[in-house]
Amino acid sequence: MAMLSIYKSDVFAQQEMLRAYNFKPLRNNVGIFTEQGGTIAWLNSSNGFVVVDAQFPNTAPHVIEELKKLGEKPFKYLLNTHHHGDHTGGNIAFKGLAQKVVAHQNSLVNQKRGAEKATNLDKQLLPDTTFGTGWKAKIGDERISAYYYGSGHTNGDAVYHFENANIAHLGDLVFNRKFPYIDRENGAHIGNWISALDKIINQFDNDTQFVWGHSFDPEKVTGNKADVKAYQNYLQNLLSFVGGEIKAGKSKEDILKSTSIPNASEWQGEGIQRSLGAAYDELKGV
């Protein structure tokens, strides 16, 4: 099975395996699409489509094709949860198609800066509509609300809630049982991430279905509050472990040699050193 190529502007260089895509309805005309990179959510409303995140230039056309099979309707909104290339690289496939591209204001800054650094600004479709604390829209019978809780995975993470369906796309604010990427270069903060997850747990009800950006098990890209709490516990255990190691006089090099985090045995995959290093730098104020 061939390895997928990493999109040049994507700082999150995961080694995911190429797999056939999955276009799946969840409930109330909202569904998900998975192939490579971050999970896409979609809405098939009476007067148009809404898409949350866009993966890569070679995969975004697949979700577009599947939605077009559901009817001849406009693509009203493309919503980005944050700027990373495995979520926004496919934006370009919506050029001339999506009526508006929406993201948090910091996501736009991060995406543009990253593209300029990678000299591929011409391959981007940047957001034309941004927000600070929140954003709302009504599409057919569905209401969509966007929320911003401060720095977490980056400093520009948005949550999009399809209110009638009661489905919320959390982007990369939750890595389900998978070691996360913590993008400190673009404003990530583990302590505030924990607080943001508290707000999410308190804001949404027990019937809310959550969509994750990434999951160790590709069949488990949706879940519930218990999964959000489990990921919050992972972050808390990460900070507690690294903080204890620092107090014990361990160096960063020593800490990075760790192969597990106490009380976090469910978290798997590549990248434990990313978590450990980010926690160390945050706690040391680097």
TrEMBL record:
All residue ranges annotated as the Metallo-beta-lactamase domain in the record: 37-214
| Gene3D superfamilies, per the entry | Ribonuclease Z/Hydroxyacylglutathione hydrolase-like
- Report the domain of life of the source organism: Bacteria
Q: Which InterPro entries does this one have?
A: Metallo-B-lactamas, NDM-1-like, RibonucZ/Hydroxyglut_hydro
Pfam families reported for this sequence: Lactamase_B
What SMART domains does the record point to?
A: Lactamase_B
User: Protein name, please?
Assistant: Glyoxylase, beta-lactamase superfamily II
- Organism of origin: Pedobacter rhizosphaerae
